[in-house]
Amino acid sequence: MPDLLPWAWVALGAAAVTIGISKTALPGGSTLAIALFASVLPARTSTAAMLLLLIVGDVFALISYRRHAHWPTLLRLAPAVVLGLLAGFAFLALAGDGIVRRAIGVILLVMIAVTLWRRSRPTTPSPRGNLLLAGTYGTLGGFTTMVANAGGPVMSMYFLATRAQVMTFLGTSAWFFAIVNIVKVPFLAGLGLFPGPVLLMDAVLAPLVVIGALIGLRIARRIDQRLFDRIVIGLTIVGAVYLLF
Question: Single GO cellular component annotation (predicted)?
């Protein structure tokens, strides 16, 4: 078990609950969890440790929304996502913890900036068959999810641009991240990022992801989304700035 201070365990526990809630109720909310994990653990270790917990959350997302995926969209994304995953893997293999840590901070700030920009503009849907759109978002989504598990905001923008309805959005997103996260496991394992202490830590935190997912299912239609988003964005900015400096 990693030798962490009590405050660090509290931060990781809060992150685990946030992962569960984000998977079943608030897509994109996991950016706060990314910042918390990377603030407590070495950068590359945080990416690997969080991946296993995200997969636990993916199970609940699939149970809830598995029947609503739009498979042509997923197939159109596949080539670009693979390219992005390979680029992200090369970056993780070559970069040290310090560089990866700062990269995570930059990625989080960029994702927040783009998300805020998107929300400030009226939705301008693009044709579902736009291969350039799929290529751009797919490559960026693959890279960011491999390096920092931060592909959520990128892919959310893509699904909105393809005119996806709410349930289609949730179902397609659930299948996308379930598949991509499983594909990432052997890559990170090949880098030696799943030692025994990390697996044991995740075993302790996994029940909190389950609790968060169940909470998310209950509050999905009750929570004030705007307030929650503002809190998540604010705390994530603080976490990202901390990672940078």
Answer: plasma membrane
